[in-house]
Design goal:
The chain is mainly beta. It is built from two helices and 23 strands. The chain is elongated, with a radius of gyration of 27 Å.
Length: 381
């Protein structure tokens, strides 16, 4: 018996967001600045400068020697603390993460002729200002981790408290997982991209959310419990920041290629003398970022495309006329093939007017085209 069916489906999803990153900023703070005797230093000047964009943020200590720097974009900073009559303290490679707090308590010494104290060690990695449980994944880790379908949401599986189904690396499409955190519902997770609520407002799952290319991601923070009231939801809080331009022009191109000839056959298919399913997948793209005006305006763009052909089998144990060693044969039914193509784009323009930090971004444009199945036939061996 032969039965062939053809179903076509085309859809286009376009999302363009233009906003500032006020919801995705970090907070850099210190309890105090004092001298060698422990006395507070009033009106000490604190400056944080981004090492790749030149962005600066400044403040002064109050009457108790305390200071706070707010609305700091994630990145690596150089922090300097100075006061009249005291040596300048310089902290290099201070890492500001999404929604995090960096504490720097400075001790300034009485200045001699042209003296300066440089602190090369970064602040302690342990977060002592709150009880949040979660992980931070930087761009290097994102590019090094195995992602079967190039979907950053699959990285949430390495966070404590996350229960996620095993990802099928032969599945077609983006394969966005819906996972549970500490027993909460899958619909109680919250996703923000560049500070913008990126959740699906209808079903509130991850099947239809925007998926930027991993090469366009700067940092991912996944929090599972004990986070503050700025984070909504009762499950996981996933915050993602895309890359931005810097004072130097940089770019990359890439392609990830899979083919049937390079894959091992499924043991279940091999046991019934079925050949390996057809799987041809090509994921390609490019990124480009740089300055529009040095220390003032920057751009970053990313494009990724996917082309994939997939054929799978549906198997069932049924009696057949052909004899076999156990008296029962296996009906082999090629269930169909699935052709899939998609594209995603991410871009940002960052402007620093008068030394003040601000960023406009859009993320991301997605398009998909699929045909399911192109051929579905049934035959009995």
């Amino acid at each position: 018996m032969n039965a062939c069916t053809s179903v076509a489906r085309d859809y286009l999803c376009l999302m363009c967001c233009l906003t500032t990153l006020s919801l995705a900023q970090t907070l850099t703070t210190a309890r105090f600045v004092h001298d060698a005797t422990g006395a507070a230093i009033i009106r000490a000047e604190i400056t944080a400068q981004n090492r790749v964009t030149g962005e600066k943020k400044s403040t002064q200590t109050d009457g108790s020697g305390d200071y706070v720097l707010t609305s700091i974009s994630p990145g690596t900073y150089e922090v300097t603390i100075s006061a009249p009559g005291f040596s300048m303290a310089r902290y290099t490679s201070v890492q500001a993460e999404i929604g995090g707090t960096v504490t720097i308590n400075a001790v300034l010494t009485v200045a001699t002729a042209a003296s300066q104290v440089t602190v090369s060690d970064a602040p302690q990695l342990m977060q002592s200002s709150n009880a949040e449980i979660g992980i931070s994944i930087d761009a290097t880790t994102v590019s090094a981790m195995p992602l079967p379908t190039r979907n950053f949401l699959q990285l949430a599986a390495i966070t404590p408290g996350v229960s996620m189904p095993l990802t099928d690396n032969s599945a077609i499409g983006r394969n966005s997982p819906n996972f549970s955190v500490n027993g909460a519902r899958t619909s109680q997770n919250n996703l923000r991209i560049n500070g913008i609520d990126a959740n699906d407002i209808s079903a509130h799952d991850f099947a239809s959310v925007a998926i930027p290319a991993p090469e366009s991601i700067s940092e991912i923070v996944v929090k599972t419990s004990m986070y503050d009231a700025s984070v909504s939801g009762a499950g996981a809080s996933i915050q993602l920041i895309t890359k931005a331009g810097t004072n130097s022009l940089h770019g990359a191109s890439y392609e990830y290629w899979r083919d049937t000839a390079l894959n091992a056959n499924d043991p279940n298919l091999k046991a019934v003398e079925l050949s390996r399913p057809v799987l041809r997948r090509s994921v390609y793209g490019a990124t480009l970022g740089g300055p529009i005006r040095k220390n003032r305006a920057f751009f970053f763009v990313s494009y990724q495309g996917t082309r994939e052909t997939n054929v799978w089998y549906v198997e069932g144990a049924v009696p057949v006329t052909r004899p076999s060693s156990c008296g029962v044969g296996i009906r082999k039914r090629p269930s169909g093939s699935f052709a899939f193509s998609s594209a995603s784009a991410v871009g940002s323009i960052e402007v620093v007017p008068g030394g003040r930090m601000g960023r406009k971004s859009f993320s991301s444009a997605l398009s998909e085209r699929s045909v399911q199945p192109t051929r579905a036939c049934t035959r009995v061996c």
